[in-house]
Design brief:
Layout (H helix, E strand, L loop, with lengths): L2 E10 L2 E11 L3 E6 L6 H8 L7 E6 L2 E2 L5 H7 E4 L10 H6 L12 H13 L15 H14 L4 E5 L7 H18 L2 E5 L3 H7 L2 E6 L2 E6 L6 H8 L3 E6 L2 E6 L4
Parallel strand pairs: 3-8, 3-9, 6-7, 7-8
Antiparallel strand pairs: 1-2, 1-4, 4-5, 9-10, 11-12
Helix pairs in contact: 4-5
Bound molecules: adenosine-5'-diphosphate (ADP).
Length: about 250
């Protein structure tokens, strides 16, 4: 397995947010973390990436405990796409190239440029490559951030609401691209997402957090209306369409 989260607990200023969270993600698997606002999804991603240090438990990536790795060693293994992107006076090309930094020895190689070019093409950003990122829309910026994480060639990709700023077409493109990247390169990916139907369509596994604990883990076809109701406090029906579960809120009476 690539990621093992081993009984992680975390609190801010003594207020517990995550409690004994444990799960693993294998090569080729895309896991989605679901749950209401403020439940601890971002905090969990930040514990996995060693930005935050768990009070208890440990995170293992590719056989190494992350807290024992240097930032450069982490960057070679873990790509992180945060929810908020900071935009500077940098072209999209340079911003994506920065993702190669953990691999660059003395200077940028032809290989680095080839990898960046490939990411720009697969994200359909050719027309924007020389545009400054502080002149981009939220969705364009989100794609650049995903490109930067991909060219890191990590074993594990962490994505915090990667499609939140994207229109329907771009959401589908990005999720398809992620799916292929995960399958073709044997990566593991963990993303958070609010759109349940999109999440269940593309993820291999879901994990519901409730009050800082794991409430349910399963494959999309295993999701139940009771789980969604219990986690979000919304009564729903689950329908099937082409084998994919569709979560539909019940009409109010
Ligand atoms: P989610 O990603 O599920 O919306 P977060 O992980 O962002 O949730 O937040 C979980 C809880 O921790 C929330 O109650 C939030 O207010 C709190 N929190 C997040 N960041 C901080 C911080 N830096 N300091 C104190 N509390 C925080």
């Amino acid at each position: 397995m690539i990621l093992q989260v081993n009984g992680v607990s975390f609190g801010y200023n003594g207020r517990r947010v995550l409690d004994d969270v444990r799960f693993s993600v294998n090569p080729g698997e895309l896991m989605v973390i679901l749950g209401p606002n403020g439940v601890g999804k971002t905090t969990l991603l930040r514990c996995i990436n060693a930005i935050l240090k768990p009070a208890e438990g440990a995170v293992w990536v590719d056989g190494h405990e992350v807290l024992g790795l240097t930032p450069q060693q982490i960057a070679r293994r873990v790509g992180y796409v945060a929810q908020q992107q900071s935009a500077g006076r940098l072209t999209a090309f340079d911003a994506i190239l920065m993702g190669r930094r953990p691999h660059i020895q003395w200077r940028v190689s032809d290989e680095d440029l080839r990898i960046v070019d490939g990411a720009i093409k697969s994200l359909d950003l050719q027309g924007l490559a020389m545009r400054y990122i502080d002149q981009m829309s939220g969705g364009e910026l989100q794609k650049v951030a995903i490109g930067r994480a991909m060219v890191q060639e990590p074993k594990l990709l962490l994505l915090d609401e990667p499609t939140s700023n994207l229109d329907l077409k771009n959401q589908l493109e990005i999720l398809r691209l992620l799916r292929h990247a995960v399958q073709d390169h044997g990566l593991a990916a963990v993303m958070t997402m609010h759109n349940l139907n999109m999440a269940l369509r593309f993820a291999d596994k879901y994990l519901f957090l409730k009050e800082g604990r794991i409430f349910d883990v399963g494959r999309p076809e295993e999701i139940s209306a009771e789980t969604v109701d219990a986690v979000y406090g919304v009564a729903v029906e689950i329908h099937r369409h082409n084998g994919n579960p569709l979560v539909i809120p019940k009409e109010e009476n």
